[in-house]
Amino acid sequence: SQQGEEDPQALSIQEGENATMNCSYKTSINNLQWYRQNSGRGLVHLILIRSNEREKHSGRLRVTLDTSKKSSSLLITASRAADTASYFCATVAQGAQKLVFGQGTRLTINP
Amino acid sequence: GAGVSQSPSNKVTEKGKDVELRCDPISGHTALYWYRQSLGQGLEFLIYFQGNSAPDKSGLPSDRFSAERTGGSVSTLTIQRTQQEDSAVYLCASSPPPLGRGTQYFGPGTRLLVL
């Protein structure tokens, strides 16, 4: 069974707007990662944030982590049509190696 | 360099048949993972290898599922006596040493359809 929940399940915005996705999890973690998936096949790693970090940036991506609330958010700024994809958060629990995925957010960027 | 590769890309089989799915990880990656993605269950962990040993098999759904890894490289996931509920996309990932927990690099997946 999955540990995380993502919100919203689907998001549709206009090109150029910002997109925010949220993720909640249940156990203590070593790190939290965000992945993107196009067309239901391979996942592409976007960013990793460790449990002792609160915010991380990578290009147009900004990730925050609040371990007290067991939640994370992914912000994509100045969205582009190519950002259309499903986005998954995944956690690695303390002492574990496997990823536990959330249910994903389907993001659609309208031109 | 080359990424994670998986074969076949697609597999259609009849209920009750055995299937083998193959994963070639990125060279030098000691950790290898199998996941599956289905409509009803989302993305689920199956098994994790560190070298040739599997310290975590907790996600294998039944004893019909097995996996092995040889030479610290290629891995094969075998499903015996396939059932319709085994239909899913099977994803393989690898990560570099020293331990897992970091970024995982995913292959394109094998889409399995059991008729």
Write up this protein:
The complex is a heterodimer of chains A (111) and B (115). With 111 residues, chain A is an all-beta fold. Helices cover 0% and strands 58% of the residues of chain A. In chain A, a hairpin with a 4-residue loop joins strand 7 (61-66) and strand 8. The radius of gyration of chain A is 13 Å and the shape is globular. Chain B is an all-beta fold and 115 residues long. Chain B contains no helices and eleven strands. In chain B, strands 2, 4, 5, 6, 9, 10 and 11 form a seven-stranded mixed sheet that branches. Chain A binds chain B through residues 2, 30-31, 33, 35, 40-45, 48, 88, 90, 92, 96-101, 103-104, and chain B through 4, 31, 33, 35, 37, 41-45, 48, 50, 55-56, 59, 89, 91, 93, 99-109.
Radius of gyration of chain B: 13 Å
Task: Name the structural class of chain B.
Answer: mainly beta
Report the uncertain regions of chain A. none
Domain count of chain A: the total is 1
**Unreliable stretches of chain B:** none
Following the backbone from N to C, one meets helices and strands of chain B in this order, namely EEEEEEEEEEE
Task: Please work out how many helical segments of chain B DSSP would assign.
Answer: 0
Average pLDDT number of chain A: 93
Radius of gyration of chain A: 13 Å
Please indicate the percent range of residues of chain A in DSSP E strands (runs of 2 or more). Answer: over 45%
Number of domains of chain B: 1
User: Briefly, what CATH class of chain A?
Assistant: Mainly Beta
Number of beta strands of chain B = 11
Structure classification of chain A: mainly beta
Greatest interface by residues involved: A-B, 23 and 29 residues
N-C termini distance of chain A = 36 Å
Task: Characterize the overall form of chain A.
Answer: globular
How confident overall, as mean pLDDT of chain B?
A: 93
